[in-house]
Write a structure and sequence with these properties.
Length: about 240
């Protein structure tokens, strides 16, 4: 296919054929996941499994690839699928509009992907996904915290157990060790300390969560979250082709 000729020239026939035949599952299609999907589709990945239960909201527009005023309230999985097929009509895309948890793993992974990209925001599903993939010998690359960061040159790739300056990674390490896992989970993370504290939800919105006021708002930009997604995709391609 002519659209992949430049990639083929750079990587060679054998590697591009591997990419065409590969199946990648991307879990979470927000600020990080949407950019990972974009790169993988343009690289020629032939099969996708996409998982996200959410729809586009106006507050997503500052950083998420599928978020536009024209797509508000549309399902992220459907938007992602349509964009992939517009990039590569020969691609096969399976979508799941569900919240990923231990009850849905078997459904999502009924056809075992070659590699999984974890771009989940929620902590417990992320922890359980990492455990599931590790213990079922499914290759996975995980995104650590991209919010509250501003320096693109602080973004690195490492084993989760060798990261630093990332509260999310620190918490995951402790819980994963309790599950018998102490290495072997590659991730993208930032060495930069958080630049600002999270802020509470607006009062009216926070009231529905009770005294705690619900989740906090984490400041973020498309620069940092986009780079996270691009690096996740790049590392996935390296793993696929090597």
């Amino acid at each position: 296919m002519e659209q992949f000729i430049r990639t083929k020239i750079l990587l060679g026939e054998d590697k591009i054929e591997k990419i065409f035949k590969t199946s990648v599952a991307v879990i979470g299609l927000g600020a990080v996941g949407s950019f990972a999907v974009e790169i993988l589709a343009r690289m020629g990945v032939g099969n996708f499994i996409l998982v996200d239960f959410d729809v586009v909201q106006e507050s997503n527009i500052n950083r998420q690839l599928y978020a536009l005023h024209s797509t508000i309230n549309n399902k992220k999985t459907e938007l992602a699928k349509n964009r992939i097929l517009d990039i590569n009509p020969n691609c096969k895309v399976k979508t799941f509009d569900i919240f990923i948890n231990t009850d849905t793993f078997e459904t999502i992974f009924s056809n075992k992907p070659d590699i999984v990209i974890d771009a989940i925001d929620s902590y417990n599903p992320k922890l359980r996904l990492l455990e599931y993939c590790y213990k079922n010998n499914i290759k996975i690359i995980s995104s650590m915290g991209a919010a509250l960061k501003t320096d693109p040159f602080s973004i690195k790739y490492a084993d989760l157990f060798e990261t630093h300056h990332c509260k999310l990674a620190e918490r995951l390490r402790g819980d994963l060790r309790g599950l018998g896992i102490s290495s072997g989970i590659p991730c993208v993370f930032s060495e930069q300390s958080p630049q600002i504290k999270p802020i509470p939800l607006p009062e009216q919105e926070g009231k529905k969560y009770g005294k705690n006021g619900g989740p906090k708002i984490l400041g973020s930009t498309p620069v940092i979250t986009g780079i996270f997604g691009i690096l996740l995709a790049n590392k996935a391609i390296e793993i696929i082709t090597n």
